[in-house]
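Kindly inspect what follows.
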Amino acid sequence: MINRVFNLGITEQLRIEDAQLVRITNVLALFPVPVYLFYIGYAYFFSQWFSAALAGSMIVLTIIAISLNSKQLYGLAKFTLFWLNGFSLWVTYHVFNVDYSVLMSFFPILFCYAFFFDLDKERYVFVGSLSFTLFFLLSSFILPKQLFYSINLSPEDALVSNYFHVAFSFVLTGLVVWYLIKNNRSVQKKLIDSREEALTFSRLQSEFLANMSHEIRTPLNGIIGFSDLLFGTKLNEEQKEYAQTIDFSSKMLLDIVNNVLDLSKLEAKKIFLEEHDFEIRHTLEQLIQINRQKTARGVKLLHQIADDVHPHLHGDEKRFKQVVNNLINNSLKFTKKGKVEILMTVDELLDDRIKLKVTVSDTGIGIPENQQDKLFTRFYQVQSSSRRAYSGSGLGLVIAKSLTELMNGTISFTSQEGKGTSFEICVPFVVARGTDMITEQPPNISNKSRDLKILVAEDNRINQIVISKILEKKGFEIDLANNGFEVVEMTSKKKYDLILMDVQMPGKDGVEATKEILLSHNERPVIIALTANALKEDRDKCLEAGMNDYLSKPISKEQIDLMLNKWF
């Protein structure tokens, strides 16, 4: 029962430290109640009913303070307690005939109350509370005691009364301090336990993300890989249409998977920026090329970049491209006629820093005014009923906003229902001054040595076929290994120029196999990790083990071409 009263006003949403302050406030309200009861009995014994009523009013104020605390009105609860204690000082001096020195013994209690004010949020409440207390205190010194109705005690009884008040004051203060120390230790233990739980949860979440990424991307690698291989065969028009549908659908599924994983990584704070120099015009051209095939008939996809935008920038091109791509996708999805336009301009330029403004506007259906404040809510869609005409997971704009803020940028929009929507992001970049920047060129492997010795280490049979066929069609001969043990054994018998190493394999994984190969070989091969894991730390783990690079599943012909062009 006592613990239930002490815990009034504590909710699951409160932080451990805030819950502790609420609990202490309840304790401070309840500890003086015995003395108020004593006052009532004291006044009743001397037949002083006015004095009994005053003491009873202190109990009423205590109940009001605890009630306010239980309703999460913490500032008002503390104000009431401060007012109660000021009133208690006044009553103690004027009604119960104590000396000035006895009043001083109540200051430690007032200090305890003041300690629990949050001065950042409750500064004005604290000032008001202190003002009331000082008013009561000053009135006790200024106004004559005889002006008020008081209990007349003999000198001997008055001395005993004074000793009682002093003793009770220090006992009460001691109990509060003891309770504070005791609960502070309890709070520290809870904080430590909470931190350990949070670390455990973060670790489990990371493992879950890695496993889900691997389990979903592995079969997707087979679907996308075989659809790519189909395009390399002789197909009639009907078969080509089917293959294009498979390819488009599988890539749509991959986008949804990536969005879900990205949202989970953002919430777990597992996404980090990877900054490098890039050419902004090339980035825009890639975005247009990617989205042109998604453009509906009757819709124009336009783009323009201002002349004063510096061609070479330094920042996270991948995440910037992802944000703009999500905005373009959103506009294309809701635009059935008219145009979608991408405009890049300079919002602010200061020395070697530029704030790039990207505006994506469309002539689509627009967003109703009563739904605009929910647009960046997870899983929210403008048409959320079962009859909605537009598909999607409702995550693209949420991820765009989170990534923009991660890059220290801002995102905003204006929309008019039936006329269209315009999204605007402003992202800061550093101007890349180097003149030796290498512009990415399409890979050319026509002159690559066809006698490269390549080993593919992959435990999944479908992925083995996909990668083998891609390389064989390019004229390479390859060997296959099903696990890390076979990789180590085969590299000890034959020298390989390139190893495509799956990270997750039974028995001995790709990381362990790589370490063994590097320890036992003087001339190391180029080792490219094949990973379906979504987390950056998993990729960093591959590089730390000695792998030269990594490819994310699902793997395409273009990705393999880029790696061959890069390393040979």
